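Below is how a single chain appears once it has passed through the pipeline. First comes the sequence as given, then the structure the pipeline wrote out for it. We keep one example in the README because the format questions we get most often are answered faster by looking than by reading.
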Amino acid sequence: MKQNNSVNEFILLGLTQDPTKQQMVFIIIFIFYVGTAVGNLLIIVTIKCSQTLGSPMYFFLFYLSLADSCFSTSIAPRLFVDALATKKVISYNECMTQVFALHLFGAMEIFVLVLMAVDRYVAICKPLRYPTIMSQQVCNVLIILSWIGSFIHSTTQIILVLRLPFCGPNLIDHYCCDLQPLLKLACMDTYVINLLFVSNSGALCTSGFVILMTSYTVILHSLRKHNAEARRKALSTCTSHIIVVILFFGPCIFIYTRPPTTLPIDKMVAVFYTIGTPFLNPLIYTLRNAEVKNAIKKLWHTKITEESKR
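Resulting structure:
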């Protein structure tokens, strides 16, 4: 709680202290963030405007792209500013807001990935009941529950962080405000709070990963009963999902299931899942998905045709 703190701001060490490397960081992060924003916006607009992408899979992909965009935005703009700043200062309130946003949209991404796996399981293993089980009403309820679950997770995290008293050093050896770096600065024994952090974030990441990998194992096992064409299409979709799951959950589990210690590699791992994965997701879902590529081409063709008639 802020009234118990003597610290009103934190100083971020960032990814590097070298001025030349800071400029390189700015350029690289800028390229990745613009690519993330454009790629996810393209998916969002395409799904929203396309008549052919109305299935539950693309409904959930819409929200995955939305969560990706917001997740990356909670980190990248601050990185831009700090990459060009001599002193990387972040206020207490801004730091707490960043923690909340990071975990809100990160949790939403986990829940949506789980829903996409459930959708593929029902579509492949129970095709006759698919329209009934994954109706639009059911999908809407599942997304609402995902937002509620994400909000509860993030609120729990921020309540725990707000209970930490900060009375000494305010130097964060990271490029953003997150749980582990803040625990190191707290003027109290953080053993119990760290257990609560791990049981919240760590359990969410690990259980989500186990559920996803189990569901895809069942799906891949059931594909033996399908014909070659159906197997090829299902494998293409599932492979894309599995790649996204591994890229996101691997670093996430590494960061949030450990004791409150920091390793030299932590920053690069965090960059990968906060900046890299949101950038790769649109590429994975468009380059490996013929329906999305065709819908994008059709959308642009229609747009160009309409402009030429004016």
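The chain has eleven helices and three strands.

See the next section for the split statistics.
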